[in-house]
Amino acid sequence: MITSERFEVFCETLYPEEQGFLAEMEKYAYENDVPIIRPAARRYLRWLLATIKPGRILELGTAIGFSAILMGQAAPEATIVTIENYDKRIIKAKENIAAAGMSDRITLLEGDAAGLLEEMEGSFDLVFVDAAKAQYETYLKLLMPLVHRGSVILCDNVLARDSGSIIDSRYAVERRDRTIHERMRKFLKDVTSDSRFVTDLSMAGDGLFSITISQ
Ligand code: SAM
Fold this sequence. Notes:
By secondary structure, the protein is of the alpha/beta class. It has eight helices and seven strands; from the N terminus they run αααβαβαβαβαβαββ. It has helices at residues 4-14, 20-31, 39-52, 66-74, 87-99, 113-119, 136-143, 178-192, and strands at 56-60, 79-84, 106-110, 124-129, 147-155, 197-202, 208-213. Strand 2 (79-84), helix 5 and strand 3 form a beta-alpha-beta unit. Helix 3 (39-52) runs parallel beside helix 4 and helix 6 (113-119) packs parallel to helix 7 (136-143). The longest helix has 15 residues, at 178-192. The mean pLDDT is 93. Residues 35-37, 61, 63, 66-67, 83-86, 89, 112-113, 130-132 line the site of S-adenosylmethionine.
């Protein structure tokens, strides 16, 4: 059987390492315990952006700007709005976005993602959801007025392999992780059975859930 770990090691032998500024940011993230999108999710995101060519991208969870800059490079025509609520990371993300020369295309909104979504207007072709894991269902509800038929909502970390796998029984999960476990399972169950969406759940990275708005 091919395990995802074996598969990931194989992919590392195929795909080139990050280069230039993204490589510097990746090093900083690993050294400073900043969570950033994993290689498998980066590959998928790059492929997706090349395929759907979004004009407007929204990201929930900027951290230090790694995935926003990656998307900015992979979709050179796109504008990106990204949201982060952790002051220390906001400062670093602003520095990085400026250093990448993308301040004119990437707008960083500071604050709680759900609160900002409630006030937001406009329409996005791609939304990358990578903020508070227990809030994914709330985010999806708030995102519905901000997307259109054909928009893609990509949710990262839905299997939470590091903190207690979502595919395991709730009893196998540490008590402190059970709320996230229950909410994520409910989110996946609700969305996969909702006729407004066509979805795919992949083991890539920490679990990638792709939702296309079909109605
Ligand atoms: N997308 C980033 C990347 O790949 O470079 C990584 C994002 S990291 C996994 C998740 C980020 O979401 C953290 O920096 C965290 O501070 C932020 N976050 C968590 N809860 C949030 C909330 N309620 N509102 C805004 N940001 C939030």
